[in-house]
Amino acid sequence: MKIDTRNLMVTLQGAIKFRVYLIYGENSGLVRERANLLVKKITGSTDDPFQVCVLDKESHERLTEEATALSLMGGQRAVWVREATDTLAKSVEVFCALYPTDDIDPSRFDSIVIIEAGSLSPRSPLRILAEKHPLIAALPCYAETGRSLEETLRGLFGKKRIAVEAFRYLLAISGTDRALIRNEVEKLLLYVGADPEITLTHVQQAIGDGAEYSVEDVVYAVMSGQPVMVDKALTKAIKEGVNMIALTRSLLQHTDRLLQARFLFEDGMPAKVAISKLSPPVFFKRTDGFLKALDSWNSQSLYALLRYIQKLEFLCKQTATPAEVLCQHFLLTIAQHVKEKKSHLDESKLFSNL
Fold it and tell me: In sequence order, what are the residues at sequence separation of 6 or more whose Cβ sits closer than 8 angstroms to the Cβ of residue 207?
């Protein structure tokens, strides 16, 4: 069953109602966090060898065997499947076929299967099965931005106070993956110690230098017309395992922020004043790059680029061409366009490698 994003937390925090939970998406940290939450809900622990069975990629073939085994200690077991891909779809279907769907009684579930997967396209057999089957809950985990990212950060700080300017600065330099965000916040809290409030100085000294992710390097190099830097930064990002969908969404968000600033600039506001109006603010070390990009684009071309980035994300999910290949060509073409100071984006060139 496809779970609407508005009902995700209700599904996770409420009673167990499904025999299988498929948790997937480019936000690997959030995928792992939600899987942990479910396993603890079922068994009370994530490391009880009698109640929790972890199946990594090399042991996926044991899914049906483990999922149908009874607990030696009584109660429900959790079968925790990691690194799942579409090759697991048939095994999940076979397992679910063992149980009736016309009279679902969660109290009779002996084992609950929690499956972690990466980004799954709408055509993914595993995702299609999960979204349609009444015994399976499909829970997407997307990159966190905007209000979602704000709520995540506030939740991680708990009752610890943080100054407004420090919070805005942290929003500006945070990545989109829950695991990375949690690591940075934990480092910050350790640095702050018993101080009553987290200040801007705390954030800058604790994580200011370490939060410049390769994704941001790629995005800024693209929009300011540096193809050589794009190639180097993108190669680094791919080696670090950066998801291409997350990269396209970062580019989309950055383009939208440039468009907001460009509107103000075209209305007569000085460029530096225009970018100071953005929320969250531009990271001070990125100001020059942002100003350069602002000077290279007008509102009309940024509007067009927003549409093309959305098309790129769709193609990354729908075509047989590897997402890395599509993104590399698209990003290098954009960077070259800026470098050559061309006024019109040629859509056919952006997607000529299809």
Answer: 170, 173, 184, 187, 188
Give Cα 41 distance to the centre of its chain.
Answer: 24
Report H helices in the chain.
8-13, 28-43, 63-67, 89-96, 125-132, 146-157, 164-173, 178-192, 200-207, 214-223, 227-239, 244-266, 271-276, 287-296, 299-318, 323-339, 347-350
Tell me: the pLDDT tens digits for 282-339?
A: 877 788 899 999 999 999 999 999 999 999 999 988 887 888 999 999 999 999 999 9
Please tell me whether residue 239 adopts helix, strand or coil conformation.
Answer: helix
Stronger pLDDT, 153 or 239, i.e. the higher one: 153
For the beta sheet containing 111-117, the strands, ordered from the edge strand earlier in sequence to the opposite edge, are 52-55, 77-84, 111-117, 20-24, 136-140
Alpha-carbon span 144 to 246, nearest angstrom: 9
The 3-state DSSP class for residue 309 equals helix
- Report which DSSP code applies to 54: E
pTM summary value: 0.55
Q: Which residues contact 116 (CB under 8 A, 6 or more apart)?
A: 23, 24, 31, 32, 35, 80, 81, 82, 83, 84
Q: What's phi and psi for 248, nearest 5 deg?
A: -65, -35
Token code pair at residue 278: 């953005």
Please give the single-letter amino acid code of residue 156. Answer: L
Evaluate whether 46 touches 199 at the Cβ level (below 8 Å).
no
